[in-house]
């Protein structure tokens, strides 16, 4: 698409030279797949099908944990390290016990599970010392891991900004815009140009085989919350620009094997929501407002991209380019909900250490990422000896590729997870599918047998009410009518279930059918249900269910969104009352939506000063001066005012919630002429 017709809000830089993109990809490929010998240098290795992008302190820490877990699993399996000879310390924290139990290294074991899928992991932060923070952390074996895990790459962005975003997402977004609008050849750090070509320039072309991208970040901060959606937008912009570029290259201009073809990619944000409930939690904290801004922005963009019928002409490519959203879906994991795991363990909920909660959240996220990775991984993602040594028949595995997820998941997504220990005798009658399914949707809790954290990632309704509803569900012998009236279940549009079983375990048709019955009854208005069966990637039978769209009607989601609207949009007379809270509920539930009523309560633009304890009008010119200095082309200048959310975002977000609130399906009737 010509630069002359780019929408004014998107000046994302994309490398115009395909030859340069391919050169940069070769550099990255050789870094992550070093040539073993001179003879092997001509062999072109494929990129992993999955890329994890950790942004901000929280996001980079979680992505690093996942990479470490993958590395330890691979090292342990291929080298057959005798972990069982090493005495496990009693005080080893539970995430490590979960890892150990998923990596039994006893050579006599007939089910030696392993996660050999090695994603590319990109870590980025607006902190000058991100590499030092990672390299010199006190985790045992970290230095050795960093040298050995070549698929881990650090995005050093300090030459643009080295001081963080000050817990202000709009500044994180603006700094990301500077980074992504700036010509990569003008960066002193050549590595950024290469990583940019991998992440942005080459998505969808044959030379880059990565098809799934997961952006991991905290919604309550400034750096991750602001940068993540901007990085996602830049990638979507580059991808869709190629999609709508119908030019055919000259036959001799470029190797056709590397040209752009329509290869679907699936991108997802993995969003960590902040604490919002508890006796000592005040909802006016800035991190709640930050998270609410991200949620409002995302569902507004999702409405504009997928549902908005007011657009003029779908056939005009630049109209589509103006309506892009950062990801196909955004998975929501509440940091708050991890308190219940410790509470279930018998501890006082108010005494839980914040670092412990963060570890639990990191473990829970890692579990979900692993299950998603194993559900879609292609054979080239595994070590070449894996299937031979593990004795797995790949033909028995049902996988989800990028296009499956692309078509099945959109908008906000929640996760339900549980697992059960099975014996290696091939019998399936030892697993209670009913109990497994119920545990996956309960409040988070520890599984004492596996050290996994089970449960749902976002609380559908207030915790005590939900706990009672689950108790009623069990007492009624899993009568779905005790739960399926909740919006979380009733208004769900699609579910994706990933069942992972040990190599020798045979999941019966009866058990699988029982699981489908539970899903059908609990999600009565679900349009699309997808299943993946993964064999040999786990020591246990595990169930991951991804619940699409309806999480935006959960208490957590609505509370954060309205908190942001009240703080940064509300007119003075409504800022400190509950009138806006009641009005938003009315907007969602009412048969008609009077947009003029929104204008009554809210101003035209968000006011970032409402969450900063400093002079916003003194900060704004400092950052805009940075933009002008780093991007000298005056026609490409973007003011911070231009990236503020406006009243249209609020209205679009409400329209999206109204759409999901009214989601229904008509049941198919059997017709006959006889």
Can you put this structure into words, describing what you see?
It comes from Marinomonas pollencensis. InterPro entries: Tubulin/FtsZ_GTPase_sf (IPR036525). This is Tubulin-like protein. The chain has 674 residues and is of the alpha/beta class. Among the domains are: 369-553, Tubulin/FtsZ, C-terminal domain (60s Ribosomal Protein L30, Chain: A, 2-Layer Sandwich); 580-662, no CATH class. Helices cover 41% and strands 12% of the residues. Residues 1-8, 36-42, 80-92 and 103-115 have low confidence and may be disordered. It is built from 23 helices and twelve strands.
What is the tally of helical segments? 23
Poorly predicted spans: 1-8, 36-42, 80-92, 103-115
Biggest sheet features: 12 strands, mixed
Shape: globular
Protein name: Tubulin-like protein
InterPro entries: Tubulin/FtsZ_GTPase_sf
Mind sketching the topology for me?
Layout: H1 18-32, E1 50-55, H2 56-79, H3 94-101, E2 120-125, H4 130-135, H5 142-148, E3 152-156, H6 169-181, H7 190-201, E4 212-218, H8 223-243, E5 266-273, H9 286-307, H10 317-322, E6 329-334, H11 338-344, H12 354-376, H13 386-390, H14 402-408, E7 411-421, H15 433-440, E8 445-446, E9 453-456, H16 463-475, H17 487-490, E10 494-501, H18 509-522, E11 528-535, E12 540-548, H19 555-568, H20 579-589, H21 595-601, H22 616-630, H23 647-661
Parallel strand pairs: 1-2, 1-4, 2-3, 4-5, 5-6, 6-7, 10-11
Antiparallel strand pairs: 7-9, 7-12, 8-9, 10-12
